[in-house]
Amino acid sequence: SENGYDLWLRYAPITDSSLKDHYLDYFTSFHCIADDPTAVVIRKELALAASSMLGIIPNETSRSKASLVIATVENLDIPANITNQLGTEGYYISANRGQVTVTANTSIGLLYGTYHLLRLTQMGEPLGSLSIIEAPKTKIRILNHWDNLDRSSERGYAGFSIWDWHRLPGYIDQRYIDYARANASIGINATVLTNVNANAQVLTPMYLEKVKALADVFRPYGIRVYLTARFSAPIEIGGLKTADPLAPEVQTWWQKKAEEIYSMIPDFGGFLVKANSEGQPGPQNYGRNHADGANMLADALRPFGGTVMWRAFVYSDEEPDDRAKQAYNEFKPLDGQFHENVMIQVKNGPIDFQPREPFHPLFGAMPNTPLMMEFQITQEYLGQATQLVYLAPMYEECLQSDTYAKGESSTVASVIDGTLHDYQLTGMAGVANIGTDINWTGHPMAQSNWYAFGRLAWNPQLDAQQIADEWIRATFGNERKVVETISELMLNSWETAVSYMTPLGLHHLMGTSHHYGPAPWVDNLSRADWTPYYYHKSNQGGIGFDRTSTGSNATSQYFPPVASTFNDPDSCPEKFLLWFHHLPWTCKMKSGKTLWEALAYHYQNGVAEVRRMQAQWKQLKPYIDHERHQSVSMLLDIQEQEAIWWKDACMSYFQSKSGLPYPEAMEAPQ
Ligand code: GCW
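Above: inputs. Below: predicted complex with 4-O-methyl-beta-D-glucopyranuronic acid.
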């Protein structure tokens, strides 16, 4: 049944007979030179794909007779100018006289190349004249599971954690294998199994056995396992009195722990650490800084080739004037002080995965410390698992932002892929939206966000449109009407959600702690930085957070001319207006509308756009199986209700501040 379990590896039967004949020419017989566990995976995937798409099991034959050859470069005659570009994970696909060759320096490269070929086949692309050279632009392409050992998942909306700790290590769930396949098919090569709000238990021998079992499953797919390290673990599971990073007994404890882990998992990736943030322990508890903490762990991992990913998501009520500034203030002065196997993991924006944020000012500001991106795939603030929001346009907007760190064209993407500052370590992390739901991600369309994350981690320059096109074809087929309609629907969906939730730079209006639905009126929490009111500050005089030089001066954390562009309400892009400015309700927008009218227009338009999505989806009924069509239809109906809820709640509340009448075009609250 079409329950979504197969993700974008659906391998639907190819019904067009000439296309089918074309693919039969290539998949009937193949030759694979490689016999390590990854080669076993390649053979299995080929058999699965060919039997499902073409109704055949490809037969293994000699190289001269084969129409498909999959072999590492030393077996073939590939010019050095090509092999030089492939690195350890890249591949070259070429076609010559009826033979397609996939080659790479490593078997992982072959696996990636095979998946590329299968993607083209699912997309109905001809294979006869291929010449594709691909290599990833970042080294670590990693999922962050915010999964707890009791199988709950922080900010997970698709069931429970897929890690069945209770039955590990003895029982290997088929899901682990399908998870690895899905990740490898889009180039994801690493995973953090546990929540950044970490539980030290995972570092005890009993759990490490289980982690080892997962690492063994993932290895042939090129995926390395990482764990979160709770900074106070030496106290909690080590019986020490302190976790001070400069205390010798603490250093020794972590060194021994690293030794123990690597004796079981020789390719263990390293640690992801959330320290001194939201109550998590860290080096500052001992009067030390982030570099002291990160370097201590890095030194423990270094002999084994491991990496520390230290998160820059820090804020506390000690800096109450503007939470958006704290990460920059704490980390920028430490640039250059981190050891070479440390990366700093920075969220895309300075607050917290809001529907839309300007890029984080740390990007470009730490030339001597490799920064990696942290995107959220799970839709904590974006309708969770009931709303259709394709996130690639949001990722793209951030990656294509120009930091001006080294003049024009210093994009965030060029920071992340390492080219701007010549970083030796590069990476992109995505907070996973994966759970035990049959379709993995709760909302069937949310699979596209997992897919898009992987594709952008591989190449941060890809565009959201191309990624959507690939995903739709693999997931729903190549029918033109289907591809065009879903593509349009997906590509508008993020802007639509921003419109009915937090237009014009508004942010953090969500209900406290669950973050679902509007609650801009909440103004009395114990901490200002958790209080929606703090972020919009609306009163009779106007609305917005003044982050200019007369306000919190967060704009000064950006390079010129970005700083001055954001600082001046006339040049600040309207999409970020109320992020940086507190403005009167009646001030004029570029359209000639007043701010109040523009706000109303956005909320109203967001609702109208959801209705358009419903209408578009309806048209696809004849083209899509009942199960998936019905499920997305029901979810869109909920989304419409929720968009109305956002509009009504926010506009009624803001009206209580502005005292202005509803603009004409606006449906008054029901
Ligand atoms: O987005 C916020 C979430 C927390 C999360 C935190 C973080 C894991 O509300 O649930 O904790 O960010 O990123 O550390």
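The CA atoms of residues 234 and 253 lie 7 Å apart.
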